[in-house]
Amino acid sequence: MFSALDYVVSEAKAHNIRLILSLANNWDAYGGKSQYVKWGKAAGLNLTSDDDFFIDPTVKGYYKAHVKAVLNRVNTFTNITYKEDSTIFAWELMNEPRCLADPSGNNLQSWIEEMAFHVKSMDPKHLVEIGLEGFYGSSTPNRFQFNPNTFASQVGTDFIRNHQTLGIDFATAHIYPDAWISNSISDSHLQFTKSWMQSHIDDAENVLGMPVLFTEFGVSAKDKNFSVSFRDQFIDMIYKNILNSTKIGGSGGGSLLWQLFPEGMDYMDDGYAMVLTKSTSTSNIISLQSKRIQMFNSKCSWRCHWGCKRKRRSVDFMFHSKHNQL
Length: 326
Description:
Layout: H1 2-14, E1 19-22, H2 32-42, H3 57-71, E2 88-92, H4 106-122, E3 127-129, H5 159-163, E4 171-175, H6 177-180, H7 187-208, E5 212-217, H8 228-247, E6 252-255, E7 260-261, E8 274-275, H9 280-297, H10 300-325
Parallel strand pairs: 1-2, 2-3, 4-5, 5-6, 7-8
Helix pairs in contact: 2-3, 3-4, 7-8, 8-9
């Protein structure tokens, strides 16, 4: 598996593509946190829930060992250590972490603080993000109105509090109205998306002082009301919101579709896959957005705006790290 990942990273480097590598998964796909708990049980640990992943010292040690192995891996194709490879744009602590066993969010918050420090202590050069879906938690009840449903505030995550953790460099949020609100596609999905994005862009700018990337979004083709035209409208709205923020040097840092496939990978389609050669209209929208973002990001004002803030946060982290060592 590591050899295969080596190849992916080397190919990305060859084509000038940057990668965000996720270090774990909340869900069962590819093992997820449940696999760590299974290992713990096999070792004789008294674990009662998959959410013990976030609190058991031994299981957390498994995760830390995995992170150490990945960061110190020497790519067999490039001979570059992962933690030294600029092809990797950022490390993601976990894909869509949730801790239902602790709606207060304290357990997950402690885990984020511990693991962000763990990653940064070994690799201070790369950016680190959490992998959050973006739900507002108990620290900001006034923002519950932007959550897609009441359940979202009870999953143990907290967009504001979590992203104020030392060592976290940018915020993330996902956009899945067809999974969060209802699986019957309607204009309400577009209305939610607009307010959801704006609230996170505003909070990233005014409260967190960091960019926010909408690192997953999509529309499932399995919905009975699905149409390519609606998906294009959905994508176009997201892109315009990002573009409007980029134009003024705002916190909207970018967006990543879930998910793009080449032909022949249909067997892995979870409903959200897009094959660009089979959807010309969608491909044109993506291409146009890429060109527009590239043009606006070339302006110095945007780079300086966030570059200066990131330097301050890096200095703060370095001071904190030395203070802890003393």
